[in-house]
Amino acid sequence: MPFVIDVDPVAFTLGGISVRWYGLITAAAAGVAVWLARREGPRRGIARGEVVDAAIWVGLAALVGGRLLFVLQNDLPALADHPAHVLMVWMGGLSFYGGLVGALVALAVFARRRQVPFLAALDVAAPAAAIGQAIGHVGCLLGGDSYGLPTDAPWAVIYRNPSAMAPLGVPLQPTQAYEAILLALLFAGLWASRRRLIAAGDGVTAAAYLAGVAGIRFVLFFLRDEAPVAFGLKTAQLIGLGIAGLAILIFVVARRRARGMSVASPTLEAMSP
């Protein structure tokens, strides 16, 4: 029997401002992600203060990048007429891959300015991002964002609240729940194997995360209610192939650097008095 979700996306109103469940859950997800990254940072030689500063850069860039790509994909005329529209996150609509690209660029700039090893910073961020995304998708599920195709599966979800973003009264694939579960499993795998991943070299953890996220979203978007754009694939799937290519590139660079360091270390030891 399908699950019925009849939740008002607005949790409460404060001073005339509507505070949505999605925003509250996203804030909680960000808090968990930053806490986890602060815990991992010192293991990779990155101070907790630097982790917090980086989180601010990355968080803001992810919001802007996520909103920008969403508007470009779904509401381009509004962007041309009102450029400030891209900043109106509260109006709904964020693209995951837009946020990811924004976060990667911001972290690269931050690492360069603060003299922080970029690949090590990526490794610190990877498990934190996975668990943060998993929690955040609970907000998507409650509000009807990122909904799936109609289905007769017994675990389908039906939205009843008029303010939900999903079609009302239609049994839908709970793709938000699928993604939350798969991202939680990705986090568990990264966390359980983090020592081996660290030993494999800076960047290997980040490569595993990017490949995992790209794979999860590539498969799940076959169940999402979006039109294909090329080769029978949807926009997010095409971007995901690019992210998977980036993951392979990072992995190759990381392994080459790790092998170079392992060769250099005995040489330096032999040269020492």
Describe the structure.
- The chain has 273 residues and is mainly alpha-helical.
- The protein has a domain at 3-192.
- The protein has helices spanning 21-40, 48-74, 76-81, 96-114, 118-143, 175-192, 194-200, 204-220, 235-271; strands at residues 3-5, 10-14, 17-20, 157-159.
- The strands form two sheets. Strands 1-4 form a two-stranded parallel sheet.
- Helix 1 (21-40) packs antiparallel against helix 2, helix 1 (21-40) runs antiparallel to helix 5 and helix 5 runs parallel beside helix 8 (204-220).
- The radius of gyration is 20 Å and the shape is globular.
- The relative contact order is 0.12.
Please give a handful of descriptors for the protein shown.
disordered C terminus; mainly alpha; two-stranded parallel ribbon; 273 residues
Along the chain, the helix and strand elements come as: EEEHHHHHEHHHH
Strand order of the largest sheet: 1-4
The fraction of residues assigned to DSSP E strands is 5-15%
Uncertain segments are 265-273
Q: Helical percent range?
A: 55-70%
The gyration radius over C-alpha positions equals 20 Å
The strand count comes to: 4
Instruction: Assign the structural class, choosing from mainly alpha, mainly beta, alpha/beta, alpha+beta, or little secondary structure.
Output: mainly alpha
Count the DSSP helices: 9
Major sheet: 2 strands, parallel
Shape, principal axes of CA atoms: globular
Give the rounded overall mean pLDDT: 87
Distance from first to last alpha carbon = 75 Å
